[in-house]
Amino acid sequence: MYIHLSQQDVRPLYQQIVDQVKVLIMDGTLSPGQDLPSIRQLAQQLLTSVITVRRAYDELEREGYIYTRPGLGTFVSNIADAKLEEMRQKQASELLWAAIQQCRILGLEDEEIETITQSLLDRLKEDRHDNRG
């Protein structure tokens, strides 16, 4: 499991862990039932504190992404497809909300944000089309 923590990221370290593990689960990189590194192991890998990783794991468990079996470890939850889609939609909404807020901080108006968003979506479509042919 690859997770990258950045001191330049405005999000707390535990939140960076949470967000990246969610993506790994939602995109299928981490499968249902797959075991996760122990809190200590992950803290060592990421060169962060056990408290940071514990907080991330606690939040992921509270949200239903993972579960812990005392003495056995921590595992990826078996999430129904409909629930997984709901989680994807929620995560996407949160990401877009944060991006829109940052655009507002930069002083952009709604129309400018919409234009930029549409331009990026168009570019993505072109990239997909170019990669097929």
* Share in β-strands: 5-15%
Query: Globular, elongated, flat, extended or rod-shaped: what is the shape?
Result: globular
Placed side by side, the strands forming the largest sheet appear as 1-3-2
Helix percentage range? 55-70%
Q: Which parts are unreliable, with pLDDT below 50 for 5 consecutive residues or more?
A: none
Element-by-element helix/strand order? HEHHEEHH
**N/C terminus separation:** 33 Å
Total DSSP helices:
5
Largest sheet: 3 strands, antiparallel
Mean pLDDT: 93
User: How many beta-strand segments?
Assistant: 3
Q: Give the structural class.
A: mainly alpha
**What is the rounded Rg?**
18 Å
Protein architecture, described:
The chain is mainly α and 133 residues long. Helix content is 62%, strand content 8%. The chain is built from 5 helices and 3 strands, in the order αβααββαα. It has a 3-stranded antiparallel sheet with strand order 1-3-2. A hairpin with a 3-residue loop joins strand 2 and strand 3. Helix 1 crosses helix 3 and helix 2 crosses helix 3. The mean pLDDT is 93.
Name the features.
mainly alpha; globular; three-stranded antiparallel sheet; 133 residues
